[in-house]
Amino acid sequence: MSKVEGSKYEELRMQRISENQAKIEALGLSKLVTIFKDKIQKAKKKDKKKANDDVEDYVPEYERGLGSKSSNITWMTNLMSLLLQMILSHGKER
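Below the sequence we write its predicted structure tokens.
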């Protein structure tokens, strides 16, 4: 393709682009595109934030000390129950 043919092609292409943009504006589609792009971006940000909020950092139990708060409560409850049983059984022996 020669430079003259190339420039003619580019001229027709730009003319076609301008006509299409004018049609889009006349139909009011450019506003809709902007609205949809904004909604999509907001939804993506919300999804990304939600995904980040759902993920907790993993900390191995040995780095947490005795374990999680709920496992400590369970352990203490079991210990108290065992001690209570021992005390009650010791009282029956007398």
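The chain has two domains: 1-55, 63-94.
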